[in-house]
Amino acid sequence: MGTPQIRGAARAALTGVAALSLITGVAMTAAASPAGASPATGQSAANPYNPSYEHSYRHGVIPTIQQNAKMKSWDAGHPTPNVATGPETLSYGGGIDGVGVNSGHAKVYLVFYGSQWGTQGTDGNGNATFSGDPDSAASAAQQMFKGIGTNGELWSADLTQWCDGPNVSAGATSCPSNANFIPYQTGGVLSGVWEDTSAASPSAATGNQLGQEAVKAAAHFGNTASGSNRNAYYVILSPHGTNPDNYQNQYCAWHDYTGDSSLTGGAVNSPYGDIAFSNQPYNMDSGAGCGVGFVNSPGTLDGWTITLGHEWHEMMSDMNPAGGWTNQQSGSSFNGQENSDECAWLSPGTAGGAANVSFGSFGTYPEQASWSNDTNACAISHPIVNGGGGGGNTVTVTNPGSQSGTVGTAVNLQLSATDSASGQTLTYSATGLPAGLSISSSGDITGTPTTAGTSSVTVTAKDSTGASGSASFSWTISGSGGGGGCTAGQLIGNPGFETGSASPWTATAGVIDNSSGEPAHSGSWKAWLDGYGTTHTDTLSQTVTIPASCKSASFSFWLHIDTAESGSTAYDKLTVQANSTNLATYSNVNANSGYVQKTFNLSSFIGQTVTLKFTGTEDSSLQTSFVIDDTALNAS
């Protein structure tokens, strides 16, 4: 497309405007560490066979089994000096940006990075599946993270000994009673799943690109407010056949945070605070080297769940590496390692060896042990310790059994639980409820289902001491039996703005436009937000109702972005919302030479009245034009 005219008198012409690649989501770039950030205290491993050697951002890296053997052979020729606290003892790094450990209930987001994951579907447990996932790894990852903190499992309880906060001194090897402890992760930790199909995942994504994807995911999940990422963790899952950060034949996974300046390409510019993330390759492609068959036979996904659990444990105990708990003993072959590193690839049946861990109704998955300072050993199971939220009491939730319902038919289900201690007040919460339902603090599930499908629901009851219990069950919602079914159709009025007026859209003055400054995608009219080269905000919105009898809904539009800005900083932005849900954010960094179609799944809004809204904001200089045309909301 040609150079657009600048709207208003701020500027007379555009010069040097380069077309930039379009990347759906928030603009991200490599930059120096955020203000106030401290550099990571970790350094490249001394062992030349360690995959973190000269790649210090690979925190908690789990080497392949072959590489691990080479590391141990090298260590054998370089004896560890006598260390008073023991060669494997972890100590506190003092925190980075005030963060040492994930001292809350973790929010784990699984980010399926790239269009190679293929067409998305749903399995019998309500998990997302993908046609490009030959080993069904996606379902296993979701079930595993849903199962953490259920069925009384104590694999994750090892984490309850670690802490951070102002009362913990740098170099400490144990936690004072007034520290901020990691709580026991009752009721699962999975908080969201997203397949980013805006582009193909790179064949060998850099550490910086993986961090950028984590920031993009934070925007997708709405974690954009201050502090919203304090307990969040983004697992960046690269698709089958790719080689993220050149992992093949070296290692199986690692974790880091966006403020690490040692990342390839530098620290990632995150407008949402420090973001913890991991590089999780499709490591079944590496076969036995990354644990296929390590515990079970054939054990295709053994190494997959082992490495997912390995990195999660290490993020929890060292969230902004290396401000948390690491081995800081100079000269020790364990120097720089985290709790799971010290127990990597210990054979099943040996002391501290990998084993199957049962997460009750969520399944049984191979996991590895993690180092425990208080027992001076690798622990595959560990009691809940001080600060762990166990409280000494036992809470038992009565399982209501499998539930069913119909779209459009109201639900009222009262849950119950018992406590081993008398006089306790129980507070209820739930994950995985069907769309349209919610639970009260007293355990009453109410609402009207809006979407057909089967969900895996976990209800948790917690008493005033912090003790809790959970019950998990399935809930199947069938399509509405009334109304003659859904009449497929396009619901947006004046979708291409060809009436020449805004109605039924609501728009700020000048947005509906047919001038030659910006050509339409089709026809003569389009919506042109911003482009003034001065501080300005434009909005465009329309409210529609998606029939409850429909089973799917998809919102799409064509977008073109022109800008006079340069560089990789997002100065001017366009946000796209459905009610209060942020669907995407674009900026001058996403400028493109033509129109690109954007599509969003709005099936979760079926049966609701939804306001679709575009908001364009422009700063004080250098115009950016956000041009929208040929919108559609297709329901069927």
Describe it:
There is one protein chain. By secondary structure, the chain is mainly β. It has three domains: 320 residues, no CATH class; 84 residues, Sandwich (Immunoglobulin-like), CATH 2.60.40.10; 147 residues, Galactose-binding domain-like (Jelly Rolls, Sandwich), CATH 2.60.120.260. The chain is 8% helix and 30% strand. The chain has four helices and 38 strands. The strands form twelve sheets. The chain has a six-stranded mixed β-sheet with strand order 2-11-13-10-4-9, sandwiched between helices.
Helical coverage, percent range: under 10%
Mean pLDDT, as a whole number?
Answer: 87
Briefly note the structural class of the backbone.
mainly beta
Radius of gyration: 26 Å
Q: Treating each run of at least 4 consecutive H or I residues as one helix, how many helices? A: 4
Query: What kind of oligomer do you see?
Result: single chain
Termini separation comes to 35 Å
Walk across the major sheet and give the strand order.
Answer: 2-11-13-10-4-9
Q: How many runs of DSSP E, i.e. beta strands?
A: 38
Q: What overall geometry do the principal axes of the alpha carbons give? A: globular
Give unreliable regions as ranges.
1-5, 8-44, 387-392
Question: Domains counted in the coordinates: how many?
Answer: 3
Q: How much strand content do the residues show?
A: 25-35%
The major β-sheet equals: 6 strands, mixed
